[in-house]
Amino acid sequence: MKRISLLSLLLVLVFAACKKDKGGDDPTPDPDPPAVSEADKVKDTTLLYAKEIYLWYKNIPASFNARQYADPNEIMEAIRPYSIQTGFTEPVDRWSFAMSQAEWNDVSGGIAGDIGLGIFFMSNNDLRVSYVEPESAAGKAGVKRTWRITSINNSTNINTSNASINFIVDAIYGGKNASIRFQKPDGTSVDMSLTPSTYQEQPLLLDTVYSAGGKNVGYFVLNSFLGDTSQMKASFSNLFQRLAAKNVTDLVVDLRYNGGGYVDLQEEMANYIIPAASNNKIMYKQQFNDLMPTNWNSTVTFAKKGTVSPQKVVFIVTHNTASASEALINCLKPHMDVSVVGPSNSHGKAVGYFPIEVGDWYILPVSFRLLNSANEGNYFNGFTPDKVVVDGLDKPWGDLNEDCLASAYKYLTTGAFRAIQREERSDPEMIRSYRTMELPKHKLLIEDRKHLH
């Protein structure tokens, strides 16, 4: 465990009172200094940490007044505009945040409290279920990816207009009871009333192997790098044992809804995917700002795990692919044949943080970046797909006719991406909806091996 003494947090307040004898008159005592509320102490401490830890701390002005904000999260949002990065015209930080310790413990542990659906549009009036959390209310009710949503809380006004999207996002992701009419692939409809519940997210949704032309292509859907790290590492080990038993030669890794998680788990996955020939080569270089101890900057090398040694890997991404999942792609790129397919660039979160305890809060100012062995790491615009392919929301996980998987599989078995089978979604409303309907998940690249005391 590495520790740092933050001198700026050792605030010494000296109060001097000068008294003069005025011919026997009783001296008038100086008034007590105004009391500082606990809330203001938390705000002051939040700012002091930001001025030490934040990757762009030099840009935070001396006049910044933390007490004008309601809470630490507002302070974190207020420092984002100071994230000026060479090569970018706009501030790059969209992610510094704070939350209560209780809420953070759930988020970081992969514990959710909604109805358990992901959604997106197939077309301007065709809303589909993109994924279902198995242990959620929706999962237990039997809802499946591909199902169309035709009514929400008795409203059939479901389209990509701003008003409709706001209504849909609030109803599905807002942690409220929802009455939904689903249309199944066979054309039948079913009405369900779904109640939010607390459940453990299941990051690994599916894995399988396809064989063609002497190739054994492993495919798995990984939705998160969050949860109990020991359990997650055990699931990775079991996954790659299954893939090894089928003599997998190449991989398709589906990260289309993976918003990230722990650096440690990203490392673990990278060590399973990396070809054996790249063992001990540089995976990434972690860089903090120049106020941090130099030994916090570190270089991590690959430590190959398992016997699967793929020649090529294709990642499926969307705008929801972020943070630790993007770091995985970036770390592997210099060492093997890496391709990306999907409907849009990935999210573009090229930086990370670690939680700092302040009162009843955890604050997470962006504090480090990860560079790969080629010193690449400023992918704030996301990774651009080598092949732009729609998210085949009308097909279940693992269906080789699903657009993204079909394109990736064709590339791995023939060397060429699949020709476009349907018109790409260039409609401005559809493009806008990729951001406005973004999954309500924090985009996380968490370093839980650094602590401040």
TrEMBL record:
<dbReference type="GO" id="GO:0006508">
    <property type="term" value="P:proteolysis"/>
</dbReference>
<dbReference type="GO" id="GO:0004175">
    <property type="term" value="F:endopeptidase activity"/>
</dbReference>
<dbReference type="InterPro" id="IPR029045">
    <property type="entry name" value="ClpP/crotonase-like_dom_sf"/>
</dbReference>
<protein>
    <recommendedName>
        <fullName>Tail specific protease domain-containing protein</fullName>
    </recommendedName>
</protein>
<dbReference type="InterPro" id="IPR041613">
    <property type="entry name" value="Pept_S41_N"/>
</dbReference>
<dbReference type="Pfam" id="PF03572">
    <property type="entry name" value="Peptidase_S41"/>
</dbReference>
<dbReference type="InterPro" id="IPR036034">
    <property type="entry name" value="PDZ_sf"/>
</dbReference>
<dbReference type="Pfam" id="PF18294">
    <property type="entry name" value="Pept_S41_N"/>
</dbReference>
<feature type="signal peptide">
    <location>
        <begin position="1"/>
        <end position="19"/>
    </location>
</feature>
<dbReference type="InterPro" id="IPR005151">
    <property type="entry name" value="Tail-specific_protease"/>
</dbReference>
<keyword id="KW-0732">Signal</keyword>
<dbReference type="GO" id="GO:0007165">
    <property type="term" value="P:signal transduction"/>
</dbReference>
<dbReference type="GO" id="GO:0008236">
    <property type="term" value="F:serine-type peptidase activity"/>
</dbReference>
<dbReference type="GO" id="GO:0030288">
    <property type="term" value="C:outer membrane-bounded periplasmic space"/>
</dbReference>
<feature type="domain" description="Tail specific protease">
    <location>
        <begin position="187"/>
        <end position="390"/>
    </location>
</feature>
